[in-house]
Each structure stands twice: as structure tokens, then as C-alpha cells.
Amino acid sequence: MGTFVHHPDGYIIINGERFEMDVFLSVEPDYSLPKPATHRSYEQGFRHVLSNGTDAWTMPSPWLQGDIYISRLNDFILMRLADEQDTLDARDAACKAEFDQLSPDDQRKQKFPQVSEMIEALWRHIIEEEDLNESGCSTIQTLRDAVRDQYPDA
Q1: N or C: which end of the chain has fewer CB within 10 A?
Q2: What CA–CA distance (Å, rounded) separates 74 from 62?
Q3: What is the pLDDT of residues 23-67, one digit of tens each?
Q4: Do both 11 and 50 map to the same domain?
């Protein structure tokens, strides 16, 4: 038995999966709540209720459109994933643009391993007597060499 909830705060929950309204509407653009309802709760084969926070109205069940929404759960999940990926891509582009505005010297400093990482690797190698690979010294030195090669004059 599937469930569909239109939460009064403006999101949709289908079988426990939450979707922001813009994601839901990108898949089902014709969906809307009838006025004056602010909430909808539908459980397949059991009940369909609209409410405005004060009053509630029992609606016909089964609700054919609700059954369709529930059956399209995977479509909504895919759209949510695409939306999240778009957000990550935009964030990455903004970070890259910010990084590209830095001077070569500052770019080099940003890419170098953190001092705390280098100290820990050295500690593990010298004090704890781990070999260069176990301690992380080899990995850090490889990264430092790559940064120096990429920014030779910085």
C-alpha cells in the first residue's frame, strides 16, 4: 500500500521519500492542491483526506491521480538526483571560478598538502617507524612534486 502526502510546508512525500515541490512539479507540472486545502494525505486502498489545518475533507478513494504519482516514484527519485547533481555542478563551477581568480602563488598554496598532514606523516615515519608508504610520506611527496611541476614559477 503506497502513500502520498502533500505537506503544508510545501513538499511531497511518496512512500517515505521526500521531494521538494519544484522537483515534483518538474515531473508532474499539472499537480495542485484544490483551494483552500494546504495538506493532502492519501493511503492507497484506505483513505484520501484534504485539510487546511482547521477543517478536513474526506475525498473519494481510490484517487486515480494519486495512484499514478505513487507508481512514478522512481521518476521522482531520478529527477531529485538530477536536481542534486545540477546543484553540485553549479557549486563546483563556482569554486573553480573562485580558484581561477587566485594568483598562481595562491593556487599553489591551496593545492599543497596541509602542514598538519605533513607533520602527521613525518611523525608516523620517524617516531612510530612506519615505512614511507604506511606513514603517507610517499603519497604526500608525490602530491608536492605534482604541485611543483604544475606551478614551477610560483
Answers
A1: N
A2: 21
A3: 999 999 999 999 999 999 999 989 999 999 899 999 998 999 999
A4: yes
